[in-house]
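Job type: complex structure
Entries:
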Amino acid sequence: MSVDVNVKKKYSDFELDVSFSVTGSRIGILGASGCGKTLTLRAIAGLMHPDEGMIRLNERVVFDSSQKINIKPQKRNIGYLFQEYALFPNMTVKGNIEAGMLGSSSKDIDELLKKYGLWDVIDHRPDSLSGGQKQRCALLRMLVSDPQLILLDEPFSAMDAHLREKMRLELISILDGYDRTVILVSHDRDEIYQMCDHLVLMDNGKVIARGATEDVFKNPGTVAAARLTGCKNISAIVKMGDHNVRALAWNNIELETADVITEDITHIGIRAHDFIPQKTGKNAIRCQKTTVSRLPFEWYVTLDNGLWWKYPRQLGEPYSDSVVPPYISIEPDKIILLSD
Amino acid sequence: MDLFPLYNSLRIAFISTAVIFVIGIAAAWYVMRLPRAVKGILDCILTLPLVLPPTVVGYLLLRLLGPRRPVGAWFLSVFDTKLTMNWWSAIFSTSVVIFPLMYRTARGAFESFDLTLSDAGKTLGLGNAYIFFRVVMPFCSTGIIAGAVLSFARALGEYGATTMIAGYTPGKTATISTTVYQLWRTNNDALAFRWVLINIAISAVVLLVINCFETKRKRA
């Protein structure tokens, strides 16, 4: 499905001004909390009335301020999975699902309840369900209303870490068996990367990057976008040649890049995982006065010039000087060119 | 002992509570979604009867409903009946006095309502009536019922405005509160005391019911 959004909304302390057009089956909106990603979702669903703009799903216009079109949320045929699930507390699991079915043709509800592992709690009220059961119940309630587009608002943020991984896989498998376009909003880049083929990056009410997920992660384009995709090392540069820069934030080390440095490039980024240990030659960086901290499966190494390096480790592997080699290097094609 | 005042008080309280239950809830739901400035002004007007002396309410009602006043005169000419000095005239006074109680408690209950629930209902394609009666009202039911019980108790005890608009006619407009005053005034102390005990008993039961709802709400 193609999703065209171009809306503005002014608040006293915040301004939403988003514009993007994506075609994909799994679209992610990634941004820090408070960047307006949930507001964007609410605008698409019709729960928030933008000051001006247009929203089009495939060829169907659901909102257009210039033509005074504003289709009610009831008629948009868009499913919305809320962050805290928003199950009706006065109804049982079955009652909730039946409420979702009111607007659609009847299906075999018992069969669905069994399939979603809710058969045993069919007469329970939401407050006695586990996090996973609540999510499945909300998901099923939404799916039985037969939406053309599914919106997921931070669907895993209310869960414990260990449950989150499991529910993510469960949700992916459910949605895979259900051929509908999904828009997922999250502040978790792993979640977006794992679940979405296309991606919109948002910062402070605006879209700062969009495209195929892999491309955006590889080439975020701007400093803010690079940060959002989890790039740890970002430095302002002075251009020395078409392929050579001096990195101001890292003790003025000189680096060679694969891509040509155009005039608009102001920064470079290096992902903390991309360094190669014990290699001298091109783009070698001397490891001096390093600080090493230990995570279960990774060494976090900070160099005296401010660079971060993440390096896999075995559980139980003790620290010795050999963990940090005298040099680490970065391949020229792993240096990300960024503009402000 | 003539039990008419008990019967009369109860029917007046029941009817006015039923009427105000609907009007109060509708007003609360409507006012809650108005812009802030309008809301503030309406809130003030609608709560006024709570702080005004009942005699002032009674006076204002008489200015409106009295047989020589606009509404009262019109009603008299059309239906050949006065709006005052009937047993049901007291429904006007009790309704005005208890309206703020119902309105305020319903407002409080609605304001604690989780709006994402109605959002969820909308995206599921549910109509506004369904959402209001099947999601909002059940969510707010304990608060609203407590408000209704409180209104009923207040209606049962109404004296000032009621005595002005319905007067005291034994066997016709007498309520418990007007009867107690009348009996005390005529030195019938023993009977007055009996009515006092009845009144205390009813009020105690009502407060017990409210307490039960409060504990239920806290536990939920």
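Summary: The interface with chain A takes residues 114, 116-117, 119-127, 130, 134-135, 138-139 of chain B (CB under 8 Å). Residues 5 and 170 of chain B are 8 Å apart (CA to CA).
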